[in-house]
Amino acid sequence: MSNKPIVNPYLAVLVGVFAVSFSALFVRLATAPALIIATYRLLFTFLLLAPYSLLRHRKDLFTISWQQRGLAAASGLCLALHLVTWFISLRYTSVASSVVLVTTQPVFVVIGSWIFFRERISRLAMLGGALALFGSFIIGAADFQIGKEAFFGDLLALAAAIMVSGYLLIGRRMRGNISLPVYTFYTYGSSAAALIIASIATSTPFAPYSARDWVLFLALAIVCTVIGHTVFNWVLRYVQASVVSVSVLGEPLGAILWASVFLSEYPTLRQTIGACFIFGGLFIFTRFSAQQAKNVVLADSNVNL
Fold first, then answer.
1. Which of the chain's termini has less CB crowding within 10 Å, N or C?
2. Which structural domain, as residue segments, surrounds residue 16?
3. Is residue 138 included in any domain, yes or no?
4. What is the pLDDT of residues 151-205, one digit of tens each?
5. Cα gap 42→127, rounded to integer Å
């Protein structure tokens, strides 16, 4: 069986970035509470992907350990918290500030890798991370002058970046032992369950909502999650992770463009300066983090030889 991809992986990366760039716009256009938007996004995603997992990976679903299921549930909880905090942030601050600050998650992933897995960080990668965080401070300071609500939204966006880092760290730990369909089944399932329980506990109504809201719920699940994030997972089989990491930096650029076109929401000069620091820092950060990881793999290979 040929390993040649049926679609050019680099074209697929562009499709994935294009798809996920609509997330912020869809959330801003929806009138439902942030908790409900996150709930239906994960619930519809789970319902769309679960049949494939049940039909093609039924045996694997029931043979993984309870510890692995618990880790997948923890990953799902981090994902749920990420979506809720990010969606709420979009109610308080601009699309530009929110999406750019959420993009800092690679920095927190590597910090978590250093804390929990004792993975080393090169000096150049640390410099890139510092530049990205400095850019986030510029945006936060600019929004604080606008008002406390905008600054609060920025803090929520940073919290969302930290939460998704937990989701990615657990996922990276587990993906070496279980397949993607099994992992997403338990992770998306537990995430949707947690959000449903939170909605019930807070007496947040599941209906009625406008027809436009229901279309947006489905669009978030199909376009942004199934097409966007699933494409990224597929592409990793054919291209380096660093290519995907750097390409994902195009997501906030697309989100800012859609906000300008459909919401007449334009980034300020300070937001633009902060974003330049973040993008430049993340480019350096992901570039040298990937290079160090490659060097570690090569060193391990030489030892094994």
1. N
2. 9-304
3. yes
4. 888 899 989 988 988 887 787 777 667 777 888 899 899 999 999 999 999 999 9
5. 35
